[in-house]
Amino acid sequence: MERRDFLKISAVSGATAALDACGKPERQLVRFIPETDLIPGIAVWRPSVCVMCPAGCGTTVRVMEGEAEVTRHGQLGLIKMGLAKKIEGNPDHPVNHGKLCPRGQSSLQVTYHPDRIRHPLKRVGARGAGEFQEVSWEAGIQELVTRLSAMDSAPAGQGLLIVARPVRGQRRVLLENFAKALGAPPPIFYQFYEDALLRRANALSFGHAQLPTFDLAHSNYVLCFGADFLGTWNSPVAQNVAYGEMRQGRPNVRGRLVQIEPRMSATGANADQWIAAPPGSEGLIALALAQVMLAENLRPASAAGQAGALIEGWATGLKDATPEKVERKTGVPAATLRRLARELAANPPAVVIIGDAPLAQSNGLFNALAVNALNALLGSVEQPGGLTFTPAPPGMAAAQGLPAQPTSAYASLRARLGLSKPAPPSPPQLLLLDGANPVYALPDAGVKEAIAKIPFIASFGNFVDETSVFADLILPDHTPLESWMDDVPESGSLEAVASLAPPTMKPLHHTRAMPDVLLEAAQKLGGSVSKSLPWTSYEEMLRSTYAPLQKEKGSIQASSTEEFWSAARKQGGWWSSEVVAPGQRPPTVGAAARAVQEAQFAGSAEEFPFFFLPYESQQFLDGALANLPWLQEMPEVLSTVMWGSWVEINPATASRLGIEQGDLVEVSSARGSVRAPALIFPGIAPDMVAMPAGQGHEQYTRYATGRGANPFKILASVVEPETGSLAWAATRVRIARVGKGKLALFGGSLREWPREFEKR
Amino acid sequence: MARQWGMVVDLDRCTGCEACVVACHAENNIATVGEDQAARGRAMHWMRVERYWEGNFPNVRVTYRPVFCQQCGDAPCESVCPTYASYHNPEGLNAQIYNRCIGTRYCGNACPYNVRFFNFYNPVWDKPLNLQLNPDVSVRSVGIMEKCTFCIQRIKVAEFRAQAEKRPLKDEEFNPACVQSCPPKAMVFGDLDDPTSEVSRLAQSNRSTRLLEEVGTLPNVIYLRSVS
Amino acid sequence: MRAVYGLYPDPAAAERAMKRLRASGSTLGFDARHICLAASEPLDEFDLGWKDQKTPMPWLAALGGLIGGTSGYFLVSLTQRAYPLPTGNMPIVALWPTGIVVYEMTMLGAILTTFISLLVSARLPHWSKGVYDPAVSEGKILVGVVNPSQATHDELVKTLREAGAEEVKDFPSS
Amino acid sequence: MAAHSPEKLNEDVLRPLVRTSWRFYLTGGILASIVLAALAAFIYQVYTGIGVSGLDRPVFWGFYITNFVFWIGISHAGTLISAILRLTDARWRRPVTRCAEAITVFALLIGGMFPIIHLGRPYLFFWLFPYPSERGIWPNFHSPLLWDAFAISTYLTGSSIFLYLPTIPDFALVRDKAQGWRKKFYGFLSLGWTGTPKQWHRLEMAMRIMAVVILPVAVSVHTIVSWDFAMAPVPMWHSTVFGPYFVAGAIFSGIAALIIAMAILRKAFHLEEYLTPFHFDKLGKLLLMMSLVWAYFIIAERLTVWYGNESPEMAVYWSTQQGRFTHLFWFMVICNLAVPFLILSIKQFRNTITGPVIASTTVVIGMWIERFLIIVPPLERKYLPYSWGTYRPSWVEITITAGTFAAMALLYMIFSKLVPIISVWEMKLGWQQEGEVPRAVASQAPLPQLAPRADLPAAGN
Description:
- Chain B is an alpha+beta fold.
- Helix content of chain B is about 20%, strand content about 20%.
- Chain D has helices spanning about 5-20, 20-50, 65-75, 80-85, 95-115, 145-165, 170-175, 180-190, 195-230, 240-270, 275-310, 310-320, 325-345, 345-350, 355-380, 395-420, 425-435.
- Chain D is globular and about 70 Å long.
- The N and C termini of chain D lie close together (about 10 Å).
- Chain D is mainly alpha-helical.
């Protein structure tokens, strides 16, 4: 081709392109210099860490080159960059073994969320009006530093309140050290469904203030009280993986599952036998099982050790917990209890699990201790096929974030906000929010007012939610895909794990990683603060804290720090190569034995005839995930509801009250009422109604705002007295039909071949 | 080499966690339709976990059953399509050629499993959610049918890779997104014509059944009955 | 085309005229083929030339059906074989679907052949060329002779009138 | 009382072609606006997506396919009835055939549009036809929809020809009577028909062949439409009875439509003299018989399902017997069986015109519901109960459905303005063959005036 021709052609095509661009605004965008070294069309997989729930799964992210519309230096344009396309489980990770739950997979949508905060914001309107103005990072950080230095002069920094979503690893260490350096009380890691009570029980029974790990893959018999361990509880992916093995992973052995709970959970639906027992009776039932084992000499009483000693009457054979007596109190037939006890004893290794609602009772600690004692009696503690504790990686103290004396974050937060008596000596002056949303997830009345009273609020969150809408300053964090990530899982793995991952993609928006911002602020604050946080970046901090692992026996054999670092980044962390030998418990602490406790409920049975169960939802957990459209449209497996809330009612109860599927029902407690459509639910006790948590946001992106109802709003402040944990399953309610509601159901019929004519 | 891709679903392992549902959405660019459309029965879930109640409280039980395109050997959807949009590919998959589809929705009626989904509107991704789209999978426009493909894009990539490396495709070298994500490993994917593959080994189980076998569709998805 | 014709009020009169014309054809220099007739309804029961009509239309229709069916078969089988898409365990060219298309195409062939053979054999369309008079629509019956020789014109007029014509006209009317 | 006379017939039949009252324009205007509304709804649907309909998963077919089957059924009014009557040489058919055949053509045009209206991508409808294209691919001849395309186009071609052929002499008649543009227009349509013995002979021969050929086509069309359903493994669709069941239903609704059309024409164009209670009585008897045949089929269909007691089919069965569709089902039975039986089995009612018209109206409504009940309940309850759904039509579908009824009426009105609605020459021929009326008044000897036959009572009861 002649050069002139070429010029002609390019001139023509250039003109065409220009004309084209007139019609389509996106073609008028500036093109930035590509930020990628990827080969177009070829996917690479990069490790990351899932933070959607506290389980701590390792992930792997599929990254491909793509074209994104971004703002750079105030200019909207197009950029070629590596974009995360899919999140899967990291196949090598000891917690989730390459698997990932729907919530973890949906975390991709956090990064690409249309309502993500894209740059630092400063409040301009009234508090809570949600009017913000863009500021520069420099100005934002300066503002934070100024406010913090002002704090520093307050008595011992007591005015600083840090409320974060539960995290572990160096992010937690950073927050804790930051608070400590400023002389502030420790940060509060808050989410609605907290685990302090179980940690406390395990500390008492086994000397481990840690959540348990279940070696279900080798169990032959699993008895579970209320825990939705295949759905949302503890480390669900790890438990699902193990469950699959328990059922069909071994030749000629199939583990059995018995679930005891008054409302069938997604886990209960898998049970070979499902037993409805009244809420709060779990501890008593566990004692009855123990009683049978002791009475029939299936196991010696001494096997329970310290865990058994915590229960009054254990040594004398639990005479007050005979199956007949327990049948009278719980309605569970004595014959069933006897059979269960015999089956448990006859099918080793067997394990008993307790979690979720049974712990959220006024007698939750007792229930947990009773189950722990039963586990000890069975000899399943720290044994294959039983209950064990994930070891901490050596040389990384406090990385799992395990407190010596577990206390309830709920209790601490309420106290700090002045919602419980006595009022705190110094009210908070400055609130730092990191992903926690107390206005939504703290059920007490007056949270909003207490938050609004705090003079200065800064938030690191990615979204404007009910709490961060009150913020004076928003310094938006990167999403996990854009950040350095680390985690030290507390449970779910039989080996020690320290997850680590570099960013999988460049930041999409004008955000900065919270740890980097804190470190920068620490530097600016100077003095003791900068001394206790001497790193210039989070990457540097991670590098130094992970260095000791190089010497440990584990998944990485490296001769140099650099080699170790590079391998850990590539692999997504470090894990020890061996399961820590069982039976290495420290000597147990002495504690007073507990007598049988009965659950107390808020509200009288006459006025409020129904137990109320606000359970953790399969899609949104406690509501933090309600902003993700994939999860909103995912049908909850038992109800098949999408995009909404519902009230589960037993069919007999519903027909007695004249309530039909989809009718709008008002659920009222002494504290207040919420409305949601009724869902006829065959697996719930007639004297109970249940609602999933997670919806009913007043302010949480376009996908969640104004959708459904928040059951937390009607919970009474019943607490477990020893730990101060909220007994969220201890409220009684009444229900009334108030009109016609709307349910987006994915599933058609409840039953496989319903006989419609039978109903008439 | 002719293959017959198939899947075994062990109902005794399935826990109803729905990881497969979101995995499928993420992998296959399936649009979310929003509350109103979902309430009208237009939600797109190529993969769904069916839930059936049995009995009455307290003797109540639930069975879960993941259902997706059964990739029938004799697929009713194929013969009824006037434009060959629904056709049988050489590896035994019921492929849907989106470009050929004119939207008679006849295949959707003929499918006994109701696993075909129709784009009643153009799919919408609020920017920048469009960046999550998998470039290996086409986005379907209004008026056409779509369905589970056994993640054919993954099959193709694996086949190309094996071809380039001049080696046979290994069993379980790759998996559809749902199988990959399934925490309790309830699903196994592979070549049913390869007697050594995990999937054909499991298919021999005395628990194996096929869904709606009596309709005569010869599905290539085998369900292993739950034991109790 | 020229013609001389008479308009007759009823079939009997037309029959009479026809008879006379046939009789006088040899003398006046025309034969039966030149006699023309137009009526506003079929007059099967009168001796007006209906009875000796013969047509192969039924056979043509059958042939058309055969052609239609055959082409239907080839349409189906050839196109399907030209682009043989895998159909699972089913035949590429299946008996029943082919049968249905062949059936419909057979019928279409017969229908179209019937229509075409009607048009061809009845010489339609034939816009404003045929011997005609609007009075036929009133129920009159037109009987006449086409292309009569000038010499016998008056004689013809007379013959037609004697047969009972209400009017005798030339075509085209001048 | 006027005697039958060709002159009066000419005048009566041709009058509507030239004289138009304000009522016509008013009615036409109303109908046209409904049709325009439907058109607007359709354009909206194409523009926005078929989501504006009430369709969902699993009910992928709803009102549109109901309309399709319904109108294809109505189309059996004409060709089939008129062909049967021609073949059996039922002499009373003569004033009826043209009205009937016109219904066929228009109902087919309307019904034939629905497979396109219901498409997700209607602008690609031509992919249904076998033509060589750049895609290098032909339609799938295994698909019942393709058979539909063949059957309906054959039927439409056939019945259009069947309608047109006997109209040619009548066009010639109008041509002779008309002035101005009409003369040209009808001259063109009449193909220069002069009425030579050869033309008459060929025309009659063609009509005889067509009557023979069109009958099996008509039967096949509705059989194939039924196979759209029966070929799919859907509970209660997959039935061998569907072919004859649909054909019977089609004839049933066709007769009803014909009775209604005749009654309206009779009133609007003062054709009392030609469309007499006698015709309504005959068609009423036919309707009664078809009502019983229909009942037989529905019993055959339901009984076998009930006795077979297979879960998937029973789910559908109960949804119509004691579920969501019960009321609709029994309403249909009342419309299609109870009302026609009561009215038409009693001579006093049948012999009025009102009686058969009422019965026909309920039958048309009932048959539309029948089509709906055949299509929707099985789709709502298809096998796996988890995927069961419900269907509710949207305003778009309702508007388009209303539009088709308006379009039918409008097309029919326009047709009646352009084409002699009664076959003039066949009437004359009939009278001539009956010897009832002299085929023309003889010039010389006036024939005695014959009285009308006893079973042909004069109009204007």
